[in-house]
Amino acid sequence: xxxxxxxxxxxxxxxxxxxxxxxxxxxxxxxxxxxxxxxxxxxxxxxxxxxxxxxxxxxxxxxxxxxxxxxxxxxxxxxxxxxxxxxxxxxxxxxxxxxxxxxxxxxxxxxxxxxxxxxxxxxxxxxxxxxxxxxxxxxxxxxxxxxxxxxxxxxxxxxxxxxxxxxxxxxxxxxxxxxxxxxxxxxxxxxxxxxxxxxxxxxxxxxxxxxxxxxxxxxxxxxxxxxxxxxxxxxxxxxxxxxxxxxxxxxxxxxxxxxxxxxxxxxxxxxxxxxxxxxxxxxxxxxxxxxxxxxxxxxxxxxxxxxxxxxxx
Amino acid sequence: xxxxxxxxxxxxxxxxxxxxxxxxxxxxxxxxxxxxxxxxxxxxxxxxxxxxxxxxxxxxxxxxxxxxxxxxxxxxxxxxxxxxxxxxxxxxxxxxxxxxxxxxxxxxxxxxxxxxxxxxxxxxxxxxxxxxxxxxxxxxxxxxxxxxxxxxxxxxxxxxxxxxxxxxxxxxxxxxxxxxxxxxxxxxxxxxxxxxxxxxxxxxxxxxxxxxxxxxxxxxxxxxxxxxxxxxxxxxxxxxxxxxxxxx
Lengths: 313, 248
Fold this sequence. Notes:
The structure holds two protein chains of two kinds. Chain A has helices at residues 16-31, 46-49, 71-78, 93-106, 209-219, 227-231, 262-268, 285-288, 297-312, and strands at 2-6, 9-10, 13-14, 36-41, 57-63, 84-90, 109-114, 124-129, 134-140, 145-149, 164-168, 177-183, 195-199, 222-225, 252-256, 273-278, 291-294.
């Protein structure tokens, strides 16, 4: 009944969401007096690998010759760990390219967008549904289960243990050819961000986004946008948050010049705290927000940048 | 080239979500159903491929009779044939089984799905089908081009983009970018007229094994009232975020 967790890395470094899923797996293992092992792919330094132990994993298997973009090859590696019954993944694109394949290979259930610990007695788990507009309680009918954990739903739980490293040089070629990669450098990724500054049509045009970017960099946030903004090409699609874009759940979501249509709220309402800045006092977003300022973004945002600078000093 | 597009019928994105029967079932009273937005990008892309390369486009749904309007709409947009597998889609596994059985009986070069449906957000069917049929699977695609017997895909990865190529037959899950929102095809009068004479067949499911059950639903807790801050005192907001909300 041990728990196996996929510890994703990006260019040899673990991110917060990795430590989050390891924390989740450890909590789960604790509830059944079991232990957590982790798998990771690519070249990673030992000093980085042992960090997995800070969150409770007692063993990490590092396959340094397998390309982590190859979802099918990775799923195949996981099938060598059939003595595990619970498999924990993040909700990332990479994880979700592996999990459905693995579930068929090992005959397990698969539940994504998970927001609660797995209840071993009732074999139930809670997930987000209807694009975060609702929660769904799901019953698992199989012995093995794979869960993709919603980001920022649990946070980090430190639980330092000794982590043994096992290096494996298995080579496996999957069924896709990886041609090239283009990384968005120096930016905080939306799914990872603790704070997101998001803006809508109220910004009037892409030329005004420097305000949003300055605020984001001042507060250490990722930038996002509403659907009309990405549809008009003001910002890339990868920044679109909402029901048909990305669902996000940061600690702090600051919405500037976004009215708060139900489709937008669906993707952001699992944020812990929401701040809304809008000229229209009747904007529906104020009903969902924790803090609101009625005012013009061009007036309020520069003041907010100043206020944050002062606060940091 | 034979293309299969898998589409689902979902509540319109503006729908308020409510449940009935002790919160065990989605309340569809007064709800408008549409083609799942993630599937729509793939549908338009397949019709574009048909125009460019001369493909045959089949659309497939696993669902009850209420799914027929979206299949008719897909035919009106330009698909050649529609198939409905007559079953309540209870979980991803049972749907994936039905879809892969249909594909086994009919040869397709390319199968296009949406990244996830906006109702149950499982995001599992395309990947499961790929494994059931031993095909390559590429998730979160934002670009697709056919080159001979290969398909070149641009996909979103965590923190960037990646170009991959796979040989036919392959299954992909798409999202916005596969085509732009402004390129999405909508039915015109001619398409609607033609759709009436295009085949829409109904097949019965083969096996009904499910691996998960949906027990009940709940809605998020109501938020407390919004604390308003004067636009001339934005430093108050910074203080509240630090001292009260403790998020900065």
